[in-house]
Amino acid sequence: MNLQKLILIFFIFCSFMFTSCSNYNSYYYLSQNKLLKKYKTTLKVLNKNQINPQLIWFSKVIKKSNDNFSKLHIAYKNKLLYIAHRDGIVKCIDINNGKIIWNINLAKKNFCIFTYCLSEELSSGPVISNNYLYLGSEKGKIIALNIKNGNKIWETSVFSEVLSDPVISNNFLIVHNNNNILQGLNKNNGHILWTVNLGPLESYSFRGTSKPTIFFNNVITGSDNGIISSRILNNGFMVWQKDLTKFPNFFHILDFNDIDAQPIILNGIIYVASYNGNFHALDLSNGDIIWKKSYKVSSDFIIKNNRIYIFDINNKLLSLDINKGNIIWSQNKFINKETITPIYYKNNIIIIDKCGKIYWLNFHNGNIIGNTLIKKFNDKIQSSLLVNNKLILQTRSGNIYVFKL
Description:
The chain is mainly beta.
């Protein structure tokens, strides 16, 4: 009897141990599977955030690169790209395959001696509005083309060279000329409707002008003398102006006061950067300063997810809090490199080195996730455009490269 009890207890103990081990193994493997699934999901998310540019096509403009001033860039509408070269070549290209829809040379329509044509010296644009394509030139001209075939609709001489894009609202085309002159034109025929002076010229300033920003019936413009103003779109009358210079007038020689970056308006606040070290948030209605910080900035910036992304004059990338202007993070990787305006894409900040390298950064902390050398260009990248998942790059020679991200 005692032996039978002992044997029974032994079998019960073994059964209990086997069941416990089985449950433990089941729990262990279940946990491992959960961890593996979680790991795979994490990898999937990480891979989703990676940017792997693949060249779809490129179009070559056989022109020698030059170092002349140019703010020419790529324009896009209805699956078509529009590009221009300083010498006067303008092209319309299918974004999907690079097929040229039309191609004109404005220089040939002007003055030619034998086979040599004088350069058009195009310097800004193209800008699209309805069926018009607008370009500015160093010769002080605004040119309007038919977007469907490239035919010239009109050409108007403005006060001086055009070093920033014209901006358009309703039937008004607003152009910020060199020499601190702002002009309003009829966009349909080029007639000059009004001309205003934005203030005295600086003795020392950088070449280039700030692109105006239109908000309803107001034109916001920053000028080389450090003054930002709000004017009425219809007639150019001043609503308010604010002097953002850092030093009194007699100290201007010690610092540049240029406002070359385009002001950005968001939720009734104007964000404006200047080279002299002041970055401001202003009240749109009256120009009153909401906050200001000391960041020297000369290039355009972007605002996404309540953050400002800017390069300072040393090319340090900064992420700023939109409410106070405080630095959230900074990235020193691009110091002394030449880059173009940051691009926001799927929670990444894309930075393009003008020599042909793409970096993508985590927008939360500025950490570099990866980089790709897409092309060793003989001439530098001048502008970029993101259309859905296509990244379009234009070089100074006018060559176009289209990548799929």
